[in-house]
Amino acid sequence: MDDMDTDAPEGGVGAAHPEESVVPDTTAAPAALDETTSRLAPALQPPSAAVGPPASTAAATAPRKRTPGRWRRIPRPERAEEYLWHPRDHSPCVKAMMDECDLITLKNIEQIENMREEDCDIFTEQDRLDFHAFKKKMIPALRSIVNSTPENTFFTYTKFSDTPEEHLTAEGMEAQILARFPERQPCKQAKDFAELALAHYNEKSRCKFKLATTLLSNCFSESWGTTYGHVNFTAVPQEETVAQPTSEAKRLFFAELMLISRLQGYANANHMRVLRVCTIDDDSCYGGCHEIFRKIDHKMRNDMDYERCHACSDRIKHPNGQLFNGGHNSTRMPYYSAV
């Protein structure tokens, strides 16, 4: 048992058993107490004051296990979907430029307010009326610019929306186009696309149609260079039946065509190839999203939205996006030169 005993240091601190906590003797001399306290400080700290377990103890501690049903996911704040970006702060350069522009605008307002009829070339009564109308209109407009903020002066907020699901008839589509364009004459591109698409449809189908009305078309290129064309037109059966007269059997069509660039060098060759022709008056149809920012809830890969066409406007109607190949880039960057 001699190896288990330790000599007590000067000051009266007795030997301690390995399993017992060591308590210093408070009657000892101050110097000895300070030395002993510094040596035994880790052992004297209460459990709540300890910074952490020793390295050996931490290494041996088992990892914390997750008990099913006791943890809950912290909800994340919802993202504002109606706006693409909201500027929160502006650099000093922008603010200084705004202040300078405000001073210039205020000087222009003062100059317009001090303008008199004698200072201007007013020869007729109409000139005098136009002069006062100009002052009445310009002064409030310039004051609104001065009172504006950088957010509504330099930045335009982007509002998200979507094209609705529609169920149109051939006559209804013709009425829509006529209401928007009363004196519209279909261009040669639309006529060529419609004639090619209808000829392709008649080759593949038993029921033969003849072209009734060419509506609208659009031609655009993708970022990888492929050029597509979309067209809407109406057609009627070539053979009229007693059960269904021609006037009641008019159908609304959508067609997609693709440019074959290697055939452009041949004068007599047809450069456009029909990819798909289908009727859209017997199912849902959707307008294009080129003039809006579509609110997209599903996951996309490489910004490709295969539910809508982003190259055409809402005036051109399409079937479900999975039924045609072109126009799915939701950034719309390749389609700004579409004609």
Describe the structure.
By secondary structure, the protein is of the alpha+beta class. Helix content is 29%, strand content 15%. Strands 3-4-5-6 form a four-stranded antiparallel sheet. Strands 2-7-9 form a three-stranded antiparallel sheet, with no helix packed on it.
Observed structural traits:
9 strands; about 30% helix; 7 helices; four-stranded antiparallel sheet; disordered N terminus; about 350 residues; three-stranded antiparallel sheet; single chain; about 15% strand; alpha+beta
Q: What characteristic shape results from the CA principal axes?
A: flat
Number of helices: 7
Estimate the strand proportion.
15-25%
Biggest sheet character: 4 strands, antiparallel
Distance linking N and C termini: 102 Å
Average pLDDT taken over every residue: 78
User: What structural class do the secondary elements suggest?
Assistant: alpha+beta
Strand segment tally: 9
Summarize the structure.
29% of the residues lie in helices and 15% in strands. The protein is of the alpha+beta class.
